[in-house]
Design goal:
alpha/beta
Length: 648
């Protein structure tokens, strides 16, 4: 069973099909090695909830903000057309109305199996893709609601009292989940953000509590699991160790039990005993492919999309997996459908999971990406994070700095370089200091491995901390340095300079001076503030793309704040630096520190820029005057100051 998904993936077939077939082989209808007893059912139920939870994690309400009208139209089309064709097809096969509607709802939902291909092709933010992503949320939610209603109708409980209870209860429940869980999560991560075990326990507790409450208001718990995933996804960066841990536990433990339990429901001998099962599978596959194609072709033509774009929408929306398996399992458990139907659904999943990636890649190559900006992100930002050096010295701030570095390094497929420098300027290094160095670097390596990022830990002894950092950056070919910052300077620092000031003067690569009084995962908005006279600089363009990548991975909104320095300045166009045209841009005049401080809110991440002034008297410190002033006004606000060397 363990090697089944690996073998299927080597054959370029979905691994989930391998696990289902493994369940067929070892189950009561195969070799009879395992019985589908209470333990298997219990583990399968947990796996089902986890599967829907992870489907919710991959769904973002922000997708509805891009091409909202197109997303709504496509979402309704890709739900209603499969519902109509699917219901009619199953009625012709002799199914009851309730069974036909439920099977049709399986056709209506879909899983974004081919999503990684879009990133590789660079069309993730093209209009057809954003419309499909937004429509996915709509059709999956509607499909799960149909499931809830059909289950009640099958039990004879679809009365007026049910509707009078369900509608307000569902509205309150959905609002409480989508609004309350993020609020509670941010508070929890703020209080216990340094305890990785506590974070994971909170995620599991959220999944099971929200699913339990769903059952209490008489809807299927899988709907609660799906909503829990949508609610909590904005708190978990895509490349964070926590997200990697959730996906690892789900994909290697819980979900396989569910897929194997589904396989145990299948009786392969039915194909011989009941030839009708083959007819059912063919009808299901044909109805699914035709309905999903029409749902993509109709809106695509209405939107004026070219044929390759329509085929990308079709390829993305044709795959069946998570929601389909969840719905058919529930239907089988309440004896609404039989093994013939389960066999047909599995065949449909196999065909669509093979077709979806092929269709998406075949026609995705012909889709024009979003209009290119004046900068090429692949040439400007990715090299910036190819080798990210992170000096670690304080266990209390290490996690946030490393998480920021991981976000940037993973985005560029780069390498993390955790560094700890010991100074021997005062004499021999104490054994306790060496022990602390080993512990800090070991913790950093653990975090990097948890996020599946390449890592090279570096322990160094040097005559000064700042020289050790800059020398290591040069020796290890670092492309970016990320330093922690307390947010203020002492009188001695202001006159003689501190470690950060010296690193800024000596560094030949960009430096991110970062302070995180709050966990980085709590970031709700990234605010990039700069003067309009900086917009023509390469450093400004790189910082914009850096801010965009950070906001994307933290699932936060991005806003620009531009200080107008001259009355004749032309309006700033976000598209000129690779941002969407609807990116909020605020123009301010007057005192920069005061104006920016007035705009800051809780859970903001402020990004500023700084440059070394080569002609400043004696090169004395002064790079962080404005950031320090803002930090003193807002001591709880996270901040990144992006410093570029003079040649940039």
């Amino acid at each position: 069973m363990l090697v089944a998904p690996l073998l299927f993936e080597r054959l370029r077939l979905p691994g989930i099909v391998g696990l289902i077939l493994a369940g067929v082989v070892v189950g009561p209808n195969g070799l009879g090695l395992l019985a589908r007893n209470e333990t298997i059912v219990l583990l399968g139920t947990v796996g089902l909830l986890f599967l829907m939870f992870m489907a919710g994690l991959e769904t973002s309400l922000d997708d509805l903000k891009y091409n909202a009208n197109k997303a709504v139209i496509f979402g309704l089309a890709t739900f209603s057309i499969p519902m109509v064709l699917g219901t009619g097809s199953m009625l012709l096969l002799g199914y009851s109305w309730l069974a036909s509607i439920l099977v049709a709802s399986c056709f209506a939902t879909h899983t974004l199996l081919a999503l990684p291909i879009l990133t590789k092709l660079g069309i993730m933010r093209s209009q057809p893709v954003t419309a499909t992503l937004g429509g996915t949320l709509i059709t999956n939610v509607l499909g799960l609601l149909v499931l809830a209603v059909v289950v009640k109708a099958h039990g004879g409980n679809l009365t007026l009292n049910f509707w009078l209870f369900l509608i307000p209860a569902l509205a309150i429940y959905t609002f409480a989940t989508l609004w309350g869980v993020p609020k509670l999560g941010r508070w929890f991560f703020r209080q216990f953000g340094h305890d990785e075990s506590a974070e994971f326990i909170f995620v599991l507790a959220t999944l099971f509590v929200v699913s339990f409450v769903a059952g209490r208001i008489e809807i299927e718990p899988i709907i609660g699991a799906f909503l829990a995933g949508i609610a909590i996804t904005e708190l978990i960066p895509q490349f964070s160790p926590l997200m990697n841990r959730i996906q690892f536990i789900g994909n290697t433990l819980f979900v396989p039990f569910f897929l194997i339990s589904v396989g145990m429901l299948i009786d392969p001998l039915i194909l011989i005993k009941e030839p009708k099962s083959l007819l059912i599978a063919v009808v299901m596959i044909a109805a699914e492919l035709l309905s999903k194609f029409l749902a993509a072709w109709g809106p695509g033509k209405f939107f004026g999309f070219q044929f390759p774009s329509i085929m990308v929408m079709f390829g993305l929306s044709v795959a069946q997996a998570a929601s389909t398996l969840a719905a058919i399992t529930v239907a089988y458990n309440i004896k609404l459908v039989d093994q013939l139907t389960v066999n047909g659904i599995i065949a449909m999943i196999l065909v669509t999971c093979v077709a979806s990636p092929w269709i998406t890649e075949r026609w995705g190559k012909d889709v024009n990406p979003q209009a290119s900006s004046s900068i090429d992100e692949s040439e400007s930002v990715q090299p910036l994070a190819q080798r990210v050096l992170v000096p670690v010295a304080n266990p209390n701030t290490e996690d946030n700095l490393l998480n920021l570095a991981l976000i940037l390094a993973k985005t560029a497929d780069g390498t993390l370089l955790p560094l700890h420098v010991l100074s021997d300027n005062a004499g021999r290094v104490a054994p306790e200091a060496r022990m602390l160095q080993t512990q800090l670097l070991a913790a950093a390596e653990t975090i990097a491995h948890a996020a599946a990022c390449d890592v090279e830990t570096i322990g160094r002894v040097d005559d000064a901390i700042d020289r050790g950092i800059t020398r290591t950056a040069s020796e290890r070919n670092a492309t970016l340095i990320i330093c922690g910052w307390k947010g203020y300077s002492t009188t001695r620092d202001n006159f003689f300079g501190n470690v950060i000031d010296n690193v800024l003067r000596r560094s030949d690569v960009p430096v991110l001076i970062s302070r995180f009084p709050q966990p980085i995962k709590n970031t709700g908005r990234v605010l990039f503030a700069a003067a309009d006279q900086q917009t023509s600089l390469v450093a400004f363009q790189q910082t914009v793309t850096l801010a965009k990548n950070i906001a994307t991975e933290l699932k936060a909104t991005l806003e620009l704040v531009m200080l107008v320095t001259s009355p004749g300045s032309s309006p700033f166009n976000p598209e000129s630096v690779g941002l969407s045209s609807d990116t909020p841009v605020s123009l301010i005049r007057g005192n920069f520190v005061r104006k920016v401080s007035q705009m800051l809110q809780m859970d903001d991440l402020l990004i500023l820029t700084a440059h070394t002034q080569p002609n400043s008297l004696l090169g004395l410190p002064g790079q962080l005057v404005q950031p320090e002033a803002i930090a003193r006004i807002h001591p709880d606000t996270s901040m990144i100051v992006v410093h570029f060397p003079t040649h940039l």
